[in-house]
Specification:
By secondary structure, the chain is mostly beta strands. The protein has one domain: Jelly Rolls (Sandwich), CATH 2.60.120. It is built from 1 helix and 11 strands. Strands 3-4-5-11-6-9 form a 6-stranded antiparallel sheet, with no helix packed on it. The chain has a 3-stranded antiparallel sheet with strand order 8-7-10, with no helix packed on it.
Length: about 170
């Protein structure tokens, strides 16, 4: 499992800058994905003097104002699909991992190639491409033989009236 180095800076009581922490963070697994939570805040905007807190609830649906900075390693989808027990397999591969979150997300593809499924459309994204995800149901698929990675910031928002919750990949 990969780790991500997270360097967190801060200012002391006198306004002097320092390195607060320099740690390797490891992730937690969902089928086909390893999610590494890099930073979490219960408020938006975050308090500049508050330290990073550990996120206890791995659920992707954040409360309004919460912020989550994360990395997701996406494993080859066809292999993951083939290894799933029949009772956990959707009828169509494109429906695997399909979900929606009550967040606005800012995503960047940092390694490899990802196919993002939204409704009937699929967009192929490569390293350097970005996505602004605003509540649409979606899935991340990797149709290559290499692990791909995305990084992003999720911000919890008020639920709009027309939002449709799709919960196929929420962690336990």
């Amino acid at each position: 499992m990969s780790t991500t180095r997270v360097v967190e800076t801060a200012i002391d009581d006198y306004g002097d800058s320092y390195i607060y922490s320099d740690d390797q963070k490891s992730g937690w697994e969902l089928p086909g994905h390893v999610i590494t939570d890099l930073f979490f805040s219960n408020q938006n905007p975050p308090d500049m003097l508050a330290k990073n807190i550990d996120i206890n609830d791995k659920n992707f649906n954040l409360k309004p104002g919460q912020i989550r900075f994360f990395r997701s390693d996406v494993y080859p989808t066809e292999q993951v699909y083939a290894e799933l027990p029949m009772k956990e397999k959707p009828a169509k591969l494109k429906d695997l991992f399909y979900h929606s979150t009550i967040t606005v997300d800012y995503i960047i593809i940092v390694k490899g190639e990802i196919a993002m499924q939204v409704g009937d459309k699929q967009v192929v994204l490569k390293a350097g491409d970005t996505v602004v995800q605003r509540g649409a149901a979606h899935a991340w698929h990797n149709y290559t033989n290499e692990v791909a990675s995305i990084m992003g910031v999720m911000i919890g928002v008020e639920v709009p009236e027309q939002f449709i919750q799709v919960d196929t990949v929420q962690p336990d």
